[in-house]
Amino acid sequence: MVAEGDRVIPRRSLSPELLRLAARQDSTVSGAQLAGFGVTDRVIERMVGHGMLARIARGVYATRDGGWRQVAWAGVLLGGSSAVLGMHAAAFLHGLVPTSPDCIAVFTAGQSRISDPRWRFIRSPRLGSGEPPRTRVAQTIIDVTAVADADQVVSLLAEAIGGRRVRPREI
Q1: pLDDT tens digit string along 18-39?
Q2: Residue 156 and residue 138: Cα distance in Å, rounded?
């Protein structure tokens, strides 16, 4: 709400700074980020009710319709400050596999109690880079090879090494 004279005018839009943050995160923001810009829980609920925000998951909102990357960002925001995308999600973002996974793996240092088929939260700290944050190429390859069959491993290694995304000694 914005005070104007003696009356209070309900907030009708998000600030340009908040919209820039959301744009960097594929139109995704957390409730904590909204609160940091002065948007209260009551205002969030009103904006959801009026279609100005859409709830992706508890505590994570979309400022406009998005696709797979928006769901990936939501997983990162749900996972907390240490969260990074991993496994096939990271491989897809690195261009090592052609299709995005249905279930997005999110590595996080902390415990997650979120149960949603869109994400699999893995309690294991990982270093990340990029936007959205994801495991580095070498770590991604190591993680994926633990669950992939032999043909998938060969294809992944050929793409990573042949595409000069990683040197063999880094794996």
Answers
A1: 999 999 999 999 999 999 999 9
A2: 11
